[in-house]
Amino acid sequence: xxKITYLVLLFIFTANAEDSSKLxxxxxxxxxxxxxxxxxxxxxLSKLEKRADVLLTNEYNSLVNYLKDGDKERxxxxxxxxxxxxxxxxxxxxxxxxxxxxxxxxxxxxxxLQHKLQRIKKLEDYNHNKGCNVCAW
Length: 137
Known about the structure:
The chain is an all-alpha fold. The chain is built from 4 helices and no strands. Helix 1 (about 1-30) runs antiparallel to helix 4. It is globular, with a radius of gyration of 17 Å.
C-alpha cells in the first residue's frame, strides 16, 4: 500500500514539475521577451533563473534518490561537468556579462537560463521514464 501511495505521489510531483518547466519557458518568451528595458529584462530573467534553479534541484534530487550507487555516481559526475560547461559556455559567449551593465548581464543570465531549461527537460524525461526497459539504468 505504501509503495502505491509513493508511486502516485511521485507521478503527481513529476507531472507538476513538467508543467512548471513548460510554464517557465512560456513566461520566458511571453514576459521577459517583451521587456522594453534592459534593467527590467535582467530582473525578469534573474527571477526566472532562480525558479529554474529550484526546479532543476528538485528534478536532480529526485533522480539521485532513485538511482542505485553506480548510476548515481555517474549522474553526480555528469551534473558537475554540466555545471562547469554551462559556466564556460556562457562566459565564452558573453565574457563581459560578469562585470558589465544590465544589457550584458541579461545576456549571461539568459544563456544560463536556456541551458537550465534544457537540463530540466532532460531530467524530467529521465524521472518520467523511471524503470523503463530501454533506459541505460
